[in-house]
Amino acid sequence: MNATARRSVEFAGIVATALLAVLMIGVISLEALRDHVGAAAFLYEQFIVVGEWMDYYLGTGVFSHGFMWRTIGTVILIGIIAPVVGTYLVHREMALIGETLAHTAFAGVAVGLFFSATTGWDGNLLTAALVVAILGALGVQWLAERTDTYGDVPIAIMLTGSFAVGTIIIEYGQGLSGVAIEDFLFGSAAVVPSSGAQLVVVQTFAVLGVIAITYKQLLFITFDEQAARVARLNVTWYNALLIVMTAVVVVGAMQILGVILVAAMLVVPVAAASQLAESFRETLVLSVLFGQASVLAGYAISIHQGIAASGPIVVVAIAIYLLTIAASSRSSALSMH
Amino acid sequence: MSTVVDIQNVTFAYGENVAVRDVSLTIEEGDFLGLIGPNGSGKTTLLHLMLGLHSPDSGTIELFGDPVDEFDDGERIGYVSQKATSRGGSMPVTVREAVRMGRFAHAGFGRLDDEDEAIVDDALETVGITDLADRRVNQLSGGQRQRAYIARALASEADLLALDEPTVGVDAESRDEFYQLLDSLNQEGITIVLIEHDIGVVTDRADHIACINQELYHHGDTESFVESDALSEAYGANGQVVHHHH
């Protein structure tokens, strides 16, 4: 494929992804507003009617249900923001930070469960996860500054340590609540609650907004941290920003992928994109496209087979990665001649 | 002529290990300073101190007249680090994307405008890699890659160019071209600080030499350095000196 055709295909893919994302944000917002705004309720019902027609023609039983749309919307948005943040993380050689923060977020869920069981607090568990994950993110950043590295030792300590705290709290609090902890570990088989979907919408705006503003700065510190320091960028601040964004994405994505698999969405599409991309900008574009392909195909498989979405999504992502390796070694073999 | 870098009685240690001891030196506008010394002599540390990457344990450093930790005109300094410290090796970044980074300090949070892009084009032209603009940095040869980093420094319209062993792993021919390029940049008025392990190259090109091994053994023009004993004192009688004659 020549460069122009390739760019056109990528552009079409990004436009399609953006339209899909806007539609999904619309659906999730309408669902949130339908009890308060008459017009929203009307539009939402029309949308469900369209879903019924889709089910009728496709022979499926998916699109007529509001909760399915909510889950699909969450999956699609995660398939955008996780690879975007992951593009910086992977090339910053911080790939396992996501995994670490997921385990920290798990401790947050445990703390939330414990709080709600003992104090009657009925806040959202994801809020607790988000707060603790952001604190964990700042903790990782602090450790990295002190030890002068994002090396695997502080990461391993943080990862296992927060999981250990999480399990202790859950053991103490066992029987206090009816929440299935497996959903947080392995990703939910069923549906994302409306509050979870709304959280991801907010996260999507926040992450894409921050990236749009700080694209250049994050690129510079990722590519050449020392030169960025010399150019008087506040590298510590941007590192903290990147890690906090990672925590935010991880907590949203955890609903679908679970603590254990969440890092895959940050890393695998980016690894695939980096095999083929000719520039950093193209890496971002391709990682979002590969991320979308993974979540859509993976989610379709999960519905078809009636299993949790996390496994299929990750397996599809890795299949794409293997294909890009094959494609890139073929193209470099061709260019040898 | 104004002072670009003013270092007074600076000492810096990594924990217990003193890397730079009581060094004072000034670099004037338009100087081409060669910074030499044996391996582990604190050359890179001294350069990092000048640029504000480390804070001295004692002593003062001024950059363009401001204390270095308050200096915030990032675009006035172009820095080419030792190759290993940049991720150009694995990250898919094009030459143009890398050179555009030189404009980031100017643009702040805004987009690069047409003028910025024109300056990037000029920088690519000056170092002779316009035809490589869309190639990935990690597909370039060592010499081409260093040119890309120089272009980035030029794009920032830096007044001070700091280079830390820029030609490690670069073939001899590209190295000569590279040093010719530095010469012509220096003649245009850009101040240059160069760390280089090949003393022959430094004495050929630089107009001032600072020779350090923890302490400053010599700082002055190249002629006085060649006549002095600073080299053998700093490197020790048995020191391995890379020395070649043209």
From TrEMBL, chain A:
One Pfam family it belongs to: ABC-3
GO cellular component: ATP-binding cassette (ABC) transporter complex
Subcellular location(s) of the protein: Membrane
Origin superkingdom: Archaea
GO BP field: transmembrane transport
Topology with respect to the bilayer: Multi-pass membrane protein
Cited PANTHER family: ABC-TRANSPORTER METAL-BINDING PROTEIN, METAL TRANSPORT SYSTEM MEMBRANE PROTEIN TM_0125-RELATED
Name the record gives this protein: ABC-3 protein
Protein species of origin: Natronolimnohabitans innermongolicus JCM 12255
Lineage: Archaea, Methanobacteriati, Methanobacteriota, Stenosarchaea group, Halobacteria
From TrEMBL, chain B:
Reactions mediated catalytically: an R-cob(III)alamin(out) + ATP + H2O = an R-cob(III)alamin(in) + ADP + phosphate + H(+)
Pfam families found in the cross-reference section: ABC_tran
InterPro entries registered for this protein in UniProt: AAA+_ATPase, ABC_transporter-like_ATP-bd, Metal_Ion_Import_ABC, P-loop_NTPase
Nucleotide-binding is among the record's keywords: yes
The EC number(s) this enzyme carries: 7.6.2.8
Domain ABC transporter: 5-239
Listed Gene3D superfamilies: P-loop containing nucleotide triphosphate hydrolases
Role: Required for corrinoid utilization. Probably part of the ABC transporter complex BtuCDF involved in cobalamin (vitamin B12) import. Probably responsible for energy coupling to the transport system.
Protein name: Cobalamin import ATP-binding protein BtuD
Organism: Natronolimnohabitans innermongolicus JCM 12255
